[in-house]
Design a protein that fits this description.
The protein has a single domain, classed as Phosphoribosyl-aminoimidazole Synthetase, Chain A, domain 2, CATH 3.90.650. The strands form two sheets. It has a three-stranded mixed β-sheet with strand order 4-2-5, covered by helices on one side. Strands 1-3 form a two-stranded antiparallel ribbon. The chain is of the alpha+beta class.
């Protein structure tokens, strides 16, 4: 993260812990905006799919309780996305884009 901060303007960071997906991400963005998460972009480990299936747990509850493996989110401008991913990967992080910030009254939308 330090390498990222040195080379890219990071607009927001959310450390995602239990329940943090729907609560912490919206705290890091201005009112009137929300995050639109592309479900297919989230790298969901097979264990989460097994838990959901065996436990009869809804997708919303899986994201809210287990965060589906997303441990941290960083918000950067669209122009800096590729550079940010490159820096994070060069420093051993499995970084990837899961969505975008949009004007919305919905804090988190998964589509």
């Amino acid at each position: 993260m330090l390498a990222l901060f040195e080379k890219v303007t990071v607009k927001a960071v959310s450390h995602i812990t239990g329940g943090g997906f729907y609560e912490n991400i919206p705290r890091s963005i201005p009112k009137g905006f929300g995050v639109k998460v592309q479900r297919s972009a989230v790298k969901v480990l097979p264990i989460f799919e097994l838990l959901a299936k065996k436990g009869g747990i809804s997708e919303r509850d899986m994201f809210n309780t287990f965060n589906m493996g997303v441990g941290m989110t960083c918000v950067v401008s669209k122009e800096d996305v590729d550079k940010a991913i490159e820096i994070l990967k060069a420093n051993g992080e499995d970084a990837y884009v899961i969505g975008e910030i949009v004007k919305s009254d919905e804090s988190v939308t998964i589509c």
